[in-house]
Specification:
Strands 3, 12, 14, 15, 19 and 20 form a 6-stranded antiparallel beta sheet that branches. The protein is 6% helix and 52% strand. The mean pLDDT is 86. By secondary structure, the chain is mainly β.
Length: 299
């Protein structure tokens, strides 16, 4: 056991570790094009060893929904990362922030391809300059930690971005007495996004029984946007009336699952207008239902 070792420990190549970073934004992504103006991967290296250190990237890639790999390349990835170290054994760990962005990598192109995960594997090299006069030190509790964070600032544009999700329907979701339904929705959309949404009714065999809202080409209309700032200025108000006739109501009763299919497009994306998605945007829905039902009255 030791408390402190001082001297020159030579050049040692050693594995630092690897990590997977899931990108949940694209979990239900099907197709489409999302463009982020300033994607970043921030790597924080906390070094408590008193040794000059280089970090070298062994593997750095993104995985798509079809499990194909996209290598992240560029000088920010391929050049060694010079890692700070504390000057004396009494100092706490020193932190080096390595940022991979549009300026030093192909991350912009990678982010446009809707990756579901990013994988990073790195190795370390002590005393990369091999200066024998350098005095190294390490304590019994010295360590090296790396934190990785993927940042996708919601500033950019979306073209025909398709999302799908599947919900299980309860067997008694629609009472047998109902003949038909009529839905009326008043939607206040404060987001700068147009949305075409279809609800696919699926039976237990996976067959599509019916599609709701198929005649509503733009269920959600995008809020107005100030083009100079990309910020939504006023919500769009849309009134939707959807008639679910007797046949569609019967299909709804027989459906076991509901597939939500949403196709998104940001405000004026066809003219390359970039928008910002902020946490103060709101979506409000007022809904009323009118139905015809059979009721047996016994006198």
């Amino acid at each position: 056991q030791y408390d402190l070792i001082q001297g020159y420990i030579d050049q040692i190549d050693f594995p630092v570790g690897n990590t997977n970073i899931p990108i949940e934004l694209f979990t239900n992504d099907n197709t489409g094009d999302v463009e982020f103006k300033a994607p970043e991967v921030q790597i924080s290296i906390h070094n408590a060893f008193g040794v000059p250190l280089d970090i070298n990237v062994v593997e750095f890639y993104a995985t798509r929904q079809d499990n194909s790999l996209l290598n992240i390349t560029g000088p920010g990835v391929e050049n060694p990362w010079k890692i700070n170290h504390p000057a004396t054994p009494q100092d706490i760990a020193d932190t080096t922030l390595q940022v991979i962005n549009n300026d030093n990598s192909n991350l912009f192109q990678i982010a446009r391809l809707s990756p579901k995960e990013i994988y990073l594997n790195v190795r370390g090299l002590t005393n990369p300059d091999a200066t024998l006069e350098t005095t190294n030190w390490l304590k019994h509790d010295s360590n090296l930690n790396i934190d990785v964070e993927v940042k996708l600032p919601l500033y950019g544009q979306i073209n025909d971005f398709n999302l799908q999700d599947t919900l299980k329907l309860p067997s008694d979701s629609i009472p047998e007495e109902i003949d038909w339904l009529e839905l009326k929705m008043i939607i206040s959309n404060g987001f700068p996004l147009d949305a075409e949404i279809h609800l696919l009714l699926i039976d237990s065999t996976g067959a599509v029984l019916d599609t709701l809202f198929k005649d509503q080409p733009n269920l959600l209309q995008a809020a107005a946007v100030n083009p100079s700032t990309g910020i939504a200025t006023s919500p769009a108000i849309t009134t939707i009336i959807e008639m679910i006739d007797e046949k569609a109501t019967e299909n709804l009763k027989n459906a076991s699952h509901l597939i939500i299919d949403a196709n998104l497009k940001s405000y004026n994306s066809e003219n390359n207008v970039a928008v910002k998605l902020l946490d103060n945007y709101r979506l409000g829905i007022d809904m009323g239902i009118r139905a015809k039902a059979k009721i047996l009255v016994e006198l």
